[in-house]
Design a protein that fits this description.
The protein has about 250 residues and is of the alpha/beta class. It is about 35% helix and about 20% strand.
Length: about 250
């Protein structure tokens, strides 16, 4: 936050629990206002002290819930911790957009294999965040944050995107022509005429798939549809929710 704001707005310390409450700060970039919330650190549940720290963790959860997107800050030297994956889960559970920012990258720039190693680790530890952009920067060098605001803008646009119903169903029919809906127990069905899709919400994008036999739709097929939506329309940095309804 201090690097973004170019001032010592928040206290910096390696001591756990230094930040007691979520701190809101306004940043201006190219005439646009951005509200950043620096949350209190969320330690493993067994290490959270009762009282003030417990209250701080609750406030951090609330801060995530009222935000449009979460920037998950990772330590390039320490690597991905189990707690990092749990915090990512909190962001996704609350339906927020997300991207990863690998901090302290200046400490690893001399290692030619560092970036490849970190990207492999991120894919392994965050298999549910394959759609999240990854930035490499260092708070000690504010000039390395040049892609921060463009990424925020791009992700927020995807988070708020709405696909017209006509275009969405043309896309769906093309998918069904080569990948029909699942049919259980070998019962034939008129697939392409019995399926319809519409977007019912944004922030995050939510799609409703109306079919004649909802029980036939598997989670694997919904993941396939989600991946096809991302390939066609982007949705970089945002979760997508799929609902199945009886037509």
């Amino acid at each position: 936050m201090n690097a973004v704001l170019e001032e010592d707005r928040v206290v910096v310390s390696d001591v756990p629990g230094t930040t007691r409450d979520s701190i809101d700060s306004i940043a201006l970039h190219q005439g646009q206002r951005y509200l950043f919330t620096d949350t209190a650190g969320i330690r493993r549940r067994g290490k959270i002290d009762r009282g003030i720290e417990g209250y701080s963790v609750v406030r951090s959860h609330l801060a995530i819930g009222r935000s449009d997107l979460g920037i998950l800050l990772l330590d390039s030297v320490e690597g991905v911790t189990e707690q990092d994956t749990k915090i990512a889960g909190i962001i996704i559970k609350q339906g927020r957009a997300c991207f990863l920012l690998v901090n302290k990258w200046d400490l690893r720039e001399g290692d030619s294999q560092a970036r490849q190693e970190v990207e492999l680790e991120l894919r392994r530890r965050f298999p549910f965040l394959t759609w999240a952009p990854v930035l490499f920067a260092s708070a000690a060098h504010p000039n390395s944050l040049g892609q921060l605001f463009p990424t925020i803008d791009r992700v927020f646009t995807a988070f708020s995107k709405r696909i017209p119903t006509g275009a969405l169903n043309k896309f769906l029919q093309e998918i069904l022509a080569t990948h029909p809906l699942p049919v259980r127990k070998g019962k034939p069905t008129k697939i392409t005429k019995s399926a319809f899709m519409t977007q019912v919400a944004t922030q995050p994008p939510v799609f409703a798939l109306f079919v004649g036999h909802p029980d036939n739709i598997t989670s694997a097929y919904l993941r396939f549809l989600e991946n096809q939506l991302r390939d066609e329309y982007g949705f970089e940095g945002t979760p997508i929710r799929m609902l199945v309804r009886k037509k």
